[in-house]
Amino acid sequence: MTYGDDTTQQTREGATDTGDARQAGEGVIRVAVADDQAVVRMGLRALLEREPGMEYAGEAGDGQAALTLLRRARPDVLLLDIRMPGMDGLAALRAIAADPDLRTTRVVVVTTFAVDEYVFAALQAGASGFLLKDSDPAELVNAVRVVAAGEALLSPAITRKVIGLFGRAGAEPVEGLETLTPREREMVAWVATGRSNDEIAAELTISPDTVRTHVSRAQVKLHARDRAQLVVFAIRAGLALPT
What we know:
6-stranded mixed beta sheet
């Protein structure tokens, strides 16, 4: 992934500062990057720094440095590689989820493959979505905006593959399932298809606001911070749309 040719200055912790101490203005999305490949970090920085409404919050070369960066810079979005030396991306995700001060940062996993053995584990650990390393710059910018708005970045193709790979073990008892109404269960199953609220509404011939209400209630009842967590719930609980 090479989006530009900017350079960075490493700190002793393995993270970097942009050298800009200004506070992000209202509406500005602050984005950090954690990847062990310098060329990837360089390209992402060049792309994000020239994107209106975004601010580059720093970078790290491994999971431990990423945690240090998040605690210092408090970005809105972290673009995170999974396979890194030392503390890898999965371990970093779990540490982020376990730290109340870091949970507001949305994490997009940047991966080489659309679905591999790490994808479901990353969803369970708190990732808000996935992006391929060879994605177009416009796709990456859109991904940042989507997760910063509190949505999940899960395409129907990826969710189908995740369900196909990890949903074969069958349903298991999942805490909170009994609190959902039949309609809310149905909405969670629809969310697991990767469709948006508008697309679900079109399928069911109801209003997007109705879908949004049911999805929001399900998130509250299941303590899911975004739609990605609802996908995990649906897979674990074996929720499926009627055929």
